[in-house]
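S.,

Sequence below, as promised.
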Amino acid sequence: MAPAGDLADCVGKLSIKRFSEKECRDAINGQVIPTALGLPRTIRGIRHYDAFATELRKAAPGFTRALNTRDIMSNRILVIDPAEEIPHCMWHPQTVLQKRPTDSWSSGIPR
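The prediction came back faster than expected:
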């Protein structure tokens, strides 16, 4: 986890609205955390890139939830406490192998 001063700096960046095209491109590629964070943009980056913005854990509940989601998606099982850190959605890494009943019925009914 990052030192308290670094976390305060990261949280302060949430209100910055100006963006650099190069920073945005690097952030999209998971290489840097942009100067202008923007909560939704950073959370999206966390969810799409493993190890992106891990230093933001505990900086804000949204970041912690997104990082916990990313850990679950990467098969890292955690003990999550308190409840505010529990992800809002879960990842299902394997798709259902069964056909839907309607698929079976339509293929098995003689015409």
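The chain is about 45% helix and 0% strand.

Coffee later?
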